[in-house]
Each structure stands twice: as C-alpha cells, then as structure tokens.
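Forwarding these from the shared drive since the link keeps breaking.
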Amino acid sequence: MSPGSAAGAWPAPRSHRSLDASVRVPGSKSETNRALLLAALANGPSRLRGALVSRDSDLMRAALAQFGVEVDTSEETWTITPPATLTVPKQPIDCGLAGTVMRFIPPLAALTGGTVVVTGDEEAFARPMAPVLQGLRQLGCEIDSDHLPLTLTAPDELGGPRVEIDSSASSQFISALLLCAPRFPHGIEVVHTGEQMPSIPPIEMSVEMLRERGVEASRSGERRWQVLPGPVQARDSVVEPDLTGASVFVAAAALAGGEVTIADWPSETTQSGALLLGVLDQMGVEHELSSDGLVVRAGAPLRAATIDLRNAADLTPVVAAMAVFAEGTTTITGVAHIRGHETDRLAALATEFSRMGVDITETDDGLRIEGCGPDGTGLTGGEFRTYADHRMAHAGALAGLVVDDVVLDDVTCTSKTMPTFPTLWRDLVGDQA
C-alpha cells in the first residue's frame, strides 16, 4: 500500500449541527462502463444519458477509442458509434487503476485477431487479473502475464464456449467474459469453480444489460452463466445514480444527524449499493423512498451489528466508518477479497482508524470494530491516509464529521468515480465554522 500525495491534502469538514440537505450524485461507474462497452459492440450508434464523467469512465472511453469506437461527449447525452470492425490498438491501453477497464478490455482485445498491450498505474499491477485471463486462454488467446502489464495475442477464431474460472476475488472476471461474449463465435458458458461465491448483484447487472440489448443471457445454475452468440442491439439508455458513491452521503446523516435526501434513488435496481438499506436497518437508521429519492433521518445512536457485505463489498469503508461511531462491537464479514481492491482495504482501514484510537482488528474475512459512540470519545485527528483509494477518502471524510482536525492526505483520488466529491461534501456540511 502506498499513501496518497500530499499535493491533495484536504482538511475534512467538521459538523457541529444536524444536516439538512439534498444531494444529487453522479451516474453509476459500473453501469456507465458496461454501457460504453456494450455500445462499442452494438450494431449501430447508441446514446447514453446521465453517464459518469470521472477518471474511470475517461479511461474506458480512451481505451474504446483505440479500438476505433467514436464516443461523442459534446452534448449532455453521449453518442457512441462502433466501427464496422474493431481495430487493433497501435499503442498500449492505459487502464489506470480502474478495475472495470483492466478486466473488461482483454476480452474485447480477444475479438481483434491481433496483439494488444494492456497496462495501467503501478498500483494496478498488484490487482487480481488471472481468472479472466485464464478464461481467455481457454478460448485460445496467448497472454504473457497473469497481471498488468500484459500482452494478449488473439487467435484467428476464438474457441469455446465453456470456460472454468475461480471468480472468488472479483465478480468482474465473470462480467468481463459475459459482456463481450455475444461477439464470440460460440458465445460463452462461464462456470465458477471457487469455494466462495463472488458478489452476485454486479453479475446480474451485466446479464440484465445484455438482455436489454437483445442478447440471450442467463444464469443457468448457482455457478454457471451463459451467453449465446448474436447481435448486440444499439440502445438509448439512462444511467442510474451511483448508489455505492451515494453511501457516504447517506452515512453522513447517520453520523451527524438530521436529514439527507439522495435524489433519484431508484425503487428497483441491480446496483449492489442498494444493499446499504439493509445495513441502515441493522444499525437503526430511519429511511424511506419518496418521490424525491431516498430520505435518511438519523438521531438515535447507531447500533452495532454483524453485517455480511459479501454482495456489496465496496460499502465496507463507509460501513466501517459508521461502526466506529456506533455503540458496541460491529463485525463486518464476507469481504476478504477487498484485500485485492485499489489497495488492501482491510489493512488500510485497520491502520488508519487505529491511528485515531479505534480498537479495530482484521479477521479472516472482514473487520471487528469496537464502537466509540456518537461523539467519538477518545479519538484524535491528524493525517488520514487514502492509499490512492477513493473509498478510503470517503471513510476519512466521515470520520472528520465527528473528530476534530482530520486531514486526508490526498482527496484527489476521489476523481476516480466522483470528481465533484470535495464540493458536494462541503455543500452537504455547509459553513459550520
């Protein structure tokens, strides 16, 4: 793990009174990058409204452009025009630290019949990649590494359809293969071989988005997914708000008290971030869906709980921050695999909250946190390192609502999925000096 840059140091705003705010968060990163990829494979131009503008989506757009895809962002609604035939990129593709880009691009490269080099940020070299690459090898690709940077050489025709991979570390391995499979000559049948199941909601999102574009895609068993070959219909679509990104604003109400509304929260969704509502129930936070969105009201101290985040692991930093200010011992389970996310999130959370004075320990598959109560009794501020991880920045910002003098070492990492985060956060807290 490497700490962030001091150039982005940011004093986290302290809250001294209850909140009263409405927040409109940007579009879902997961949905935006899936929609861009599917539009690149479609049989005509697609239009995308509400797409996320962030480093992750910028990297996806730049990567697709190297395959000959035109993405016109000059209007609020983007237009994506696929080429008649995907071109072989002449330069290495930069995936940055974006999991969706580094996992989704190799299957697209497998469709070119050529050789493609894929790289990214140095921190990305440690992120798990092997299962999706093993799946592509089973289809006939030659790949010189099990992590970034890598060189992939596609066969003249991909084999298949059956591949067997262990996707325990990330559901993105399965989604990556499914999303490109309509263009594989035999489609694909992906069988998960690991003992622990991956997070299912993101895979459901991939399957649903394929179906919306006329593709025959299904989950045909607990561990088996299938996509038949065929055209991907061009489609005009609207991206939902990023519910995982919204979770930090929801948690703010739980910590500072008052009422926060998340505009346009969908009543039905495949986003795993929606599982936050169950966490709110466990911890005693009042919430309801209204015509305006999700309304969160908090006042009573947070209750400690045992929380299984297996299907919503990206919520772990925000839930951990809530647990710090709960009464009692909270245990977060099912998230061992986030040790391989942007950073080792379990170690990072344990390290940074311990530095503040929290009794927090890693378990085999999560964290155990002794709550300090709503006032954070005994906790001290100081530098909160983000490790170039946007979710760690969210955890630090939440701690800063309650504890004096918390300073994030680098808030610029939030540009990965929410470049407007510092402004949205200050608007939420308001002038409470």
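-- next protein --
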Amino acid sequence: MIFLDEVDPLSSPMKAKSVGELGLCGVAAAIANAVYNATGVRIRDYPVTLDKHLAHLPRMS
C-alpha cells in the first residue's frame, strides 16, 4: 500500500492505493484444481459450474 502526500481524485477516501487485487488472480485456478483433485474432472472454462462439471463426469453403469 502506498499512502499519497498529494491529493489524487482517483484514490480512495483514505487517500491510499494498493495492489491487493493481484492476490486474487490465482484463486479461481486453485478452486478449479481442487475440484479436479476431488473428482478427476478438469474444467478449463470459467466459471466452473455444476452443469460443466456434470457433463464431463463418467457415466455410471
């Protein structure tokens, strides 16, 4: 986080900017990998939804 000495009209009311959003980039991939590890179904299109998942499950006989 960088606190600004000058007034920036695009900053937050706290007069701060941060790059906290960068930490969220890997969350979707981690969830997709967790689904793969739990079920063996790899979904490569986001969002990972139940209909995409069910379409790739092997058929039970």
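The chain has a mean pLDDT of 80. The beta strands are 2-3, 16-17.

- D.
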